[in-house]
Structures are given as structure tokens and as C-alpha cells.
């Protein structure tokens, strides 16, 4: 082998053996260096590759490699190898704008707030000495105090501007004096299946983690339980990606290769048999919500003032007995309670009515109801409710009120 450990015997190789060994090492090393230079200088560039490239390499930076000069054995020369690529350029543009968001909550038995959760956020604007950050509602929900961790682990206090549980978005702000980067919003409508994307965030507290993947689908909808009753009452529009999104990534950036934010990382499917299915809120969906929160501290939506249960919750054999419904009526919302003095109450809607349409559009369940209400209508709109009462279909005109997102 050319090497002997004294622990395994004291025999030494002969002097002639030593001379032959040294010569062999020299020529082998020289030959290896020549091959390395040829590969780095000619073959790799021809394949579109670069020597020593890494996902964490800093853009616009050259790596250097020292090799033995084949023309002058015993001397060294330095080869500069460019490691720039689209991913590192994109990450460099937005990296300093992705921050950690720490949620402090007061403990039940003592007054001092303790860290309760860690998520991510994206600095998207600096104005009048303040920096504005978009994150998820579930990252800041219930916080008695918020703190932001910047790219160099500098922690600064944050103030909640407003939040929207329905869309799972929130805006917070900090003093801008230590902020080094501001992200640019892209156009999520231009995304294509298979397009490369990068997720940046703080999964499990590992700050500034970068993962790459592709757009698996751009027009997914996933059910969300907004009010905590374990029933889906909203279908969120999301981008599906296989870029790794883990706890702590929530609120972070999903970017394209131009370094533009095209989504806010929101959730993943957490099942042992599932891998590579994560979701982000498209930035074109998020932008109007962000702007409204910035301006008003909340999102204003149309309001009817009813509490309901899906008709499907009631066994078929009881529907005739309870509501005297015709057999053809199989879907709708049963009015379980009215907000006293609310728009529906003022219009004459009664407990036990079954809502089946709005402006002639069929309302089958809570998802259809919320989608039509929030996508098609505005506060103050005049609408017509199609209702079954005591077996008869009636139409009740009413004017929508308004409610805030919080």
C-alpha cells in the first residue's frame, strides 16, 4: 500500500521501494492534474456545466482551484471557474427580503409572553421608514407580541397591520433601518406547469433555507376550514409545487427564476404516504388582499348575517318532516340562526328557512355559498334569496351589509 502503521508492525519498505513509490506518486499526481485541468477547462463547459457549482454558491462569484502546471512540474496555477446559474441569481435577488416571524403568546399561568410558533414572511415594500411584510394569518394568529428575524439573525419588534383568516394572509411592519432587501412581486398568471421555482423560508427554524422544484399545477383549489368547525367552508386557490415546504416555511416566498415572488408558501399535505405536494397562495390572488389590509387594516366583504347548516347534514327521512321540502330539493343551507338586526334579519329571513339560490344561482353547500358571496358580490349590493319556507318557494329581496376579515 505504500503506508505502514507502526501499530501493526515495525517493518519498513526498502530504500529502493521508497524511491519507486515516490516516483509513482509523482507521475500519478501529475497525470491526474492534467486530466483535471482538461475536464474543467474544456469538457465541462461543452456540457454546459461548471466545476464546483453548488446550490448555496453566491451569484457573481468565481470559485478557484489550484492545480499543478503540466508545463512546469512542481509549480501551481489558479483556475477561475464560474458557478453562476439561474437558481443562485434568483435566490440572491430575494434572499435578504425573506425573514423569520416569531409569534409570542402569553402563557396561561404567568404574564410573560413566550415564543409559540415560528414562520416566515416576505418584505415587499419600504416606505416612510417602515418595511412591510406579508405572511400567513396562521403564523401571526393569537400573538400578543411579534418579532421578525432578519437575514443576519437580527431580531426586531413587529406590529400587526391586519390579517385575513379567509385567505390566510396577514401584513406586519417593522422599522426599515436594518432592512437590506425588498422583494419584487411577479405575475402568477403567467406560470406554466413544469416551470422551475424556488421556495425560501425557515423550516423547523433553519433560517434562509432554499429548496427548488417545479410548478406541479397552477390552478388547484384545496378545501379550508376557516371557522374551526372541522368542515370545509372555503376552497383556496393555490399553486401546487414539489419544492419542499415544511413547518416554518409558511409565509415565505415561492419565486420564479427571475427572482420574483409568485406565491406565498402556505401549506402542505402532511401524510406519511405523501411526498412533494406543497401549496402556495398565488401572488395575483394575494396582492389585492395585501393592499386592502395595508389601507384599512382588514378586508371588507359582503355580509348576510346568517348561521347555517348544510341540508345534507340532515337525514333524508327527516327533511320532509322538519322542513316540508319537496323531494326534488336535496341541497341547500338550513338557516339555523340569524344575526339580530343583520341584513337577513331585517329582510325577513326566518330560522328554519332553507336557502337554495342567490340571484337565481344555485347554492348547494357552504363552499358554493361563500364562493358566490365573496367572488361575485360587493357590500351594498341588492340581491334576491331563493328560499323554501313550509314547503313553498319564496323570493326575499335584501341588501348586503359589510363585514371585516378579523
Can you offer a commentary on this structure?
With 406 residues, this protein is of the alpha+beta class. The protein is built from seven helices and 23 strands. The strands form five sheets. The chain has a six-stranded antiparallel beta barrel with strand order 3-4-5-8-7-6. A six-stranded antiparallel beta barrel has the order 10-11-12-15-14-13. A hairpin with a 7-residue loop joins strand 1 and strand 2. It starts with 14 loop residues before the first helix and ends with a strand. The N terminus is likely disordered.
How would the blueprint of this fold be written?
Blueprint (H helix, E strand, L loop, with lengths): L14 H32 L15 E7 L7 E7 L3 H9 L3 E9 L6 E15 L2 E6 L1 H4 L4 E5 L5 E10 L4 E7 L8 E2 L10 E6 L7 E16 L9 E8 L11 E3 L4 E9 L9 E5 H14 L3 E4 L2 E5 L5 H8 L9 E6 L4 H5 L6 E5 L2 E2 L3 H11 L5 E8 L2 E8 L1 E4 L2
Parallel strand pairs: 9-14
Antiparallel strand pairs: 1-2, 3-4, 3-6, 4-5, 5-8, 6-7, 7-8, 10-11, 10-13, 11-12, 12-15, 13-14, 14-15, 16-23, 17-18, 18-19, 19-20, 19-21, 21-22
Short descriptors:
406 residues, alpha+beta, six-stranded antiparallel barrel, six-stranded antiparallel β-barrel, 7 helices, 23 strands, elongated
Amino acid at each position: 500500500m505504500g503506508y505502514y502503521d507502526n501499530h501493526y508492525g515495525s517493518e519498513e519498505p526498502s530504500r529502493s521501494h521508497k524511491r519507486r513509490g515516490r516516483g509513482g506518486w509523482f507521475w500519478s499526481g501529475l497525470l491526474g492534474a492534467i486530466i483535471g485541468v482538461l475536464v474543467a477547462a474544456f469538457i465541462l463547459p461543452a456540457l454546459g456545466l461548471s466545476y464546483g457549482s453548488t446550490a448555496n454558491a453566491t451569484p457573481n462569484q468565481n470559485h478557484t482551484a489550484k492545480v499543478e502546471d503540466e508545463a512546469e512540474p512542481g509549480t501551481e496555477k489558479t483556475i477561475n471557474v464560474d458557478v453562476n446559474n439561474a437558481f443562485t441569481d434568483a435566490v440572491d435577488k430575494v434572499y435578504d427580503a425573506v425573514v423569520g416571524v416569531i409569534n409570542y403568546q402569553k402563557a396561561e399561568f404567568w404574564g410573560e409572553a413566550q415564543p409559540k410558533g415560528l414562520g416566515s414572511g416576505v418584505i415587499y415594500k419600504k416606505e416612510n421608514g417602515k418595511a412591510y411584510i406579508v405572511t400567513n394569518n396562521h403564523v401571526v394568529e393569537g400573538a400578543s407580541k411579534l418579532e421578525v428575524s432578519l437575514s443576519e439573525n437580527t431580531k426586531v419588534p413587529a406590529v400587526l397591520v391586519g390579517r385575513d383568516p379567509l385567505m390566510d394572509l396577514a401584513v406586519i411592519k417593522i422599522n426599515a433601518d436594518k432592512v437590506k432587501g425588498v422583494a419584487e412581486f411577479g405575475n402568477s398568471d403567467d406560470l406554466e406547469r413544469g416551470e422551475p421555482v424556488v421556495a425560501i423560508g425557515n423550516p423547523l427554524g433553519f433560517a434562509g433555507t432554499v429548496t427548488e422544484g417545479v410548478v406541479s399545477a397552477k390552478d388547484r383549489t384545496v378545501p379550508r376550514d376557516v371557522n374551526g368547525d372541522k368542515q370545509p367552508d372555503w376552497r383556496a386557490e393555490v399553486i401546487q409545487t414539489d419544492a419542499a415546504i415544511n413547518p416554518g416555511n409558511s409565509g415565505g416566498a415561492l419565486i420564479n427564476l427571475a427572482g420574483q415572488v409568485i406565491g406565498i408558501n402556505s401549506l402542505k399535505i402532511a401524510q406519511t404516504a405523501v411526498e412533494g405536494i406543497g401549496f402556495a397562495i398565488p401572488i395575483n390572488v394575494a396582492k389585492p388582499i395585501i393592499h386592502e389590509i395595508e389601507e384599512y387594516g382588514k378586508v371588507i366583504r359582503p355580509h348576510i348575517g346568517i348561521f347555517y347548516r348544510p341540508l345534507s347534514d340532515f337525514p333524508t327521512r327527516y327533511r320532509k318532516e322538519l322542513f316540508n321540502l319537496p323531494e326534488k330539493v336535496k341541497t341547500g343551507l338550513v338557516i339555523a340562526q340569524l344575526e339580530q338586526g343583520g341584513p337577513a334579519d331585517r329582510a325577513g329571513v326566518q330560522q328554519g328557512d332553507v336557502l337554495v339560490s342567490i340571484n337565481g344561482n344555485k347554492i348547494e353547500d357552504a363552499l358554493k355559498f361563500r364562493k358566490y358571496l365573496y367572488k361575485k358580490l360587493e357590500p351594498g349590493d341588492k340581491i334576491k334569496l331563493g328560499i323554501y319556507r313550509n314547503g313553498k318557494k319564496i323570493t326575499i329581496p335584501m341588501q348586503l351589509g359589510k363585514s371585516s376579515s378579523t
